[in-house]
Amino acid sequence: MPRSGYAASATTRRRRPRPVVRTVTSVAVVSAVVVGGSYAAGLGPFARGATDPEPAALAQARAFLADWAAGRLPNAAGRTTRPATAQEVLRNFTAGLDIRRPTLTAAAAPTQAEDDTVDVPFTATMPIAGLGTWTYRSKLPLRQQPDGSWKVDWTLSIVHPRLSGTKKFHLEREDTGATPDVTDRKGASLSAAEFPSLGPVLHQLDAGTGGGARGAIQLVDRATGKVERTEATFAKKPDQPAHRPVRTTLDATWQAAAEKALAAGAHGRNASLVALRVDNGEILAMANSPSSGFNRAVSGTYAPGSTWKIVTSSALLLKGAVAPSDVVDCPQYLTVGKEFHNVETSEHRNATFLKDFTESCNTAFISLRGKLGDRELGDVAGTYFGVGQKWHVGIASYDGSVPAPRDETEQAASMIGQGRIQANPLIMASVTATAVSGTFHQPSITHGNRNTTTTTPLPRKVVDQLRTMLRTTVTDGTARVLSGLPGDIGAKTGTAEVSDDEPNNGWLAAHRGNVAVACVVEQGVTGGGSAGPVIRDLLRAVPTDPS
After folding, report:
1. CA distance 55 to 60
2. Is the pLDDT of residue 526 over 70?
3. Is 199 a member of any domain?
4. Choice among 96-105, 122-131, 201-210 with the minimum mean pLDDT
5. Order of strands across the sheet with 246-247?
6. Which of 113, 133, 162 is the last residue of a domain?
7. What distance, in Å, lies between the first and last C-alpha atoms of the chain?
8. Sheet with 271-277: strands ordered across
9. Is the pLDDT assigned to residue 40 strictly greater than 90?
10. How do residues 213-272 score in pLDDT, each as one tens digit?
């Protein structure tokens, strides 16, 4: 039966991928050379000579390509003239066409365009999961801004010369009768028919097993869907081996429960969750709503909101900047460039830091921002939790970003998981597992994955403090929705602002026994009220740890 995906929608909504998009993949590391220069007295950007490029333009080009290559799409998009559009297009293009680990090779010589941009031609080699490789050429334009900085002058044709507001790409698959034999950790068969959320990842799991499909990438009219031309065709070679079975770390019981809990609790909203083992990072379940769309669980890019206070608390506790029993006042409002407030403008005067954590007090955490250096939160996230390092999960994943704040307001926002911090349920489930065990384990959905991460264990004292704080959040704090369940459950809720005119996203990260789980519900308003019931139903349905 034909299968298809779409890429690069003409319109965007912030962090809301279109349902037809499947998975996002990281892009291989590339380099680029861009020549620019200073504009003065009629001199163009090449007045300094083609062999002496403008350093700022060169640096921005390399940074953009490096971020795009590493899958840091929010960072890459932030280097363009249209960040929101760029992030959506870059994500949808690779996701909708099932592109895995592309290679982008810059031409040796940049050129000056008539519109005063500096163009860097490049060759794109795009491996399509389970099919073959699509190769084409495009170019990267840079334009100097009024303040003297350089940015990528965003246009759809950056991604592909024929991509436009009226034309998009469509991936058509034709199965040849052979489908990937994917099993769970115990050998039970897994299929998209029985577990719909696994549909977006089956071809990724199958990509290295020999493939059995034919397909084509077509250029289509956005309005009519009419095929304008075929860009590339793929067919299985006669000597290609048949599919080999793929054994995953998933647990059919947990997967079924996760899909059921999310389907019932999402109420039609975009949502996702991940459950994994604390002791080794093996993924037990991943679920998405809608189940047939973008794999938000491992490739989504969200502000994690107050679930990130697990990492912020770790940074503060590691350096002895605060103790759980210390009094850290929690007022209704705190102004740091802009006014920050707590959920429902609550306040807790003379609260301890433990109380601030369990009640998720934003103003208290922001008041401690001076205790951490500009890069300290990101350093702790990477050094102890592996966030921002390259993860080899077994499928395409987004592994987080914690950039240094650009000003005091952004530093305040980063203390509560806002600003430019980006994560997803896979990352926050891993963060929770690391916090309660003390050791980061690279998450995985298949066995034998390469591990290039380097982390340091958390001190036992900090682990004990975090476990107490998480447990108290369930018994006496904002995660009371889990308090009726058996077991020593700990959790952290989160509410993440999206924009002034959209409801907040709701988060909850939790652990019980040897399982950590995290869930996000877009426009869920609060974590306890939206993600909380989903995780409660999941843990209630599977009361024991996986074997």
Report:
1. 9
2. yes
3. no
4. 201-210
5. 189-190, 182-183, 246-247
6. 162
7. 36
8. 283-289, 271-277, 515-521, 505-512, 490-496
9. no
10. 678 999 999 888 899 999 998 875 555 455 567 899 999 999 999 999 999 999 999 999
pLDDT at 213: 61
**CATH of residue 156:** 3.10.450
- Give residue 45's domain range: 19-162
* Non-local CB neighbours of 547 within 8 Å, separated by 6+ positions: none
pLDDT digits (tens, 9 = 90+) for 323-357: 999 999 999 999 999 999 998 778 899 999 999 99
Question: Which of 280, 228, 283 has its CA nearest to residue 252?
Answer: 283
Same domain, 138 and 269: no
Residue 508 in tokens: 């909850």
Considering the domain architecture, whether residues 414 and 523 belong to the same structural domain is answered as: yes
Strands 182-183 and 246-247: parallel
Tokens linked to 91: 């994500």
Same domain, 352 and 457: yes
- What distance in Å separates the CA atoms of residue 364 and residue 329, rounded to the nearest whole number? 6
Give just the sign of the alpha carbon dihedral 506, 509, 510, 515. positive
- The answer to whether residue 378 sits within a structural domain is yes
What's the pTM? 0.74
Question: Which pLDDT does position 22 carry in this prediction?
Answer: 33
User: Which amino acid does the sequence have at 509?
Assistant: A
Residues 113 and 119 sit within 8 Å (Cβ to Cβ): yes
Structure tokens at 164: 């436009």
